[in-house]
Design a protein that fits this description.
Layout (H helix, E strand, L loop, with lengths): L13 H19 L4 E6 L3 H10 L4 E7 L19 E5 H9 L12 H13 L11 E5 L1 H9 L15 E6 L7 H10 L6 E6 L12 H12 L13 H4 L18 H10 L4 H14 L3 H13 L2 H4 L12 H20 L4 H14 L18 H12 L3 H5 L5 H22 L10
Parallel strand pairs: 1-2, 2-5, 5-6
Antiparallel strand pairs: 3-4
Helix pairs in contact: 1-2, 7-10, 10-13, 10-17, 11-13, 14-17, 15-17
Length: 434
Amino acid sequence: MAEPAEAHPPLGLAVEAEKQLAAAVQFICEREQVSRLNFISHSWGSMPVGRFAERHPSFIDRWVLFAPITWREKTRYLARPDAGAWRLVSAEDQWQRFVEDVPAQQPPVLRRELFDEWAAGYLATDPRSADRNPPAVQIPSGPTVEILRAWQGELAYDPSLVQAPVAIVRGSWDGLVTDADAAWLFNAFSRAPVKRDIKISGATHLMHLELMRAALWQESIAFLRAENTGAIMVNQDSRTASIPGYNPGAKEIARSPISMEDWEKMKQSALFTDEDVIYLRLSYEVLKDQAEDLVKVWRGIILSHPHLRTYDENPHTGELDKAYAAAVGKRFTQWVIDTAKADYNQQWLDYQYEIGLRHHRTKKNKTDGGHTTEHIRARDLIAFAAAIVAPMKPYLAKGGDPSEIVNRMYDAWWKSMILQVTLWSQPYMKDGDF
């Protein structure tokens, strides 16, 4: 790096980085006494991880590929696929990377003042950056060269040899990872037992530094925790174990009359997409500590309307069944968390059917031994869905997210609420009508 760039071939190619990665993996496994690791790579970083995955499949548990560079059919490019050992990248060069893929009519995904703060740290990584005009960081040219080689038909690893579960996560405005690129890579991972392709709206190739970074975190963490594979789990955390009557997956929970395939079609009917799932999961961090407050708002609406309050009252005495109301309130609070997590599997689907049964005369009062009106009318069950979502926007805004993200979370909650109240309505329908 201290010698002229043209004096040496590109530095930092995947074959070199793979050796460094292998040394790091060996150290971590020995230090932590584990045999497998999860991996997250960005952009060109998928190439050394891919090479490592080919040669050491037993070390990889799961792999998230954020904005991975993929193979493209050989075409003609202005830049050559070979270069010297290193090149210079200024702060302004980086700024252009941040703005070039954002559509002209869209608001910026990163404020300039925040970028300037980041740029100062970037320049500080090279002690000699200030000696150059303009100030710039000296970086190995290997990654850039291998990106160009990939786009001329020469990818540094073979995806078909990867045996681990993989998730491709990318931004909708990523000019370096197009839909065609993601589709090719998804299909090329022919031996991966689990595959996901996740596109997050309003984000570019540098999403980890942009407004939608929280969505990137949520989706990556969910995949690495295997929360999206349909595995059945009972009492997933200590909080739910202490909620009376909250028992997804228990043997006494009835099987939903509709299948997961039916559920997918219902989502299509409601225009509920993977993007809505992402925004629901973004709302989890905002709402998890406000769930009880939201339930208090909803309970207040119920108690302020006599025709709704009657569902919590003893029909013989007209008195509120406080024990029943408290038990239902705890499960209502957990329902907020479950909705925001948006983890859909057969267990979740069955529990939605159970919720419907507990509103219907089939199971009303039975879970808690309540002494209330034995049946909630369908018209009140369905209409109250609006009262649940309508007051939520101020709570969603407390996370400090930009208004456009708050609005998208709010829209996702509306769609989810409509879908769930539809599922709850199953016991009210005549056989064959649902």
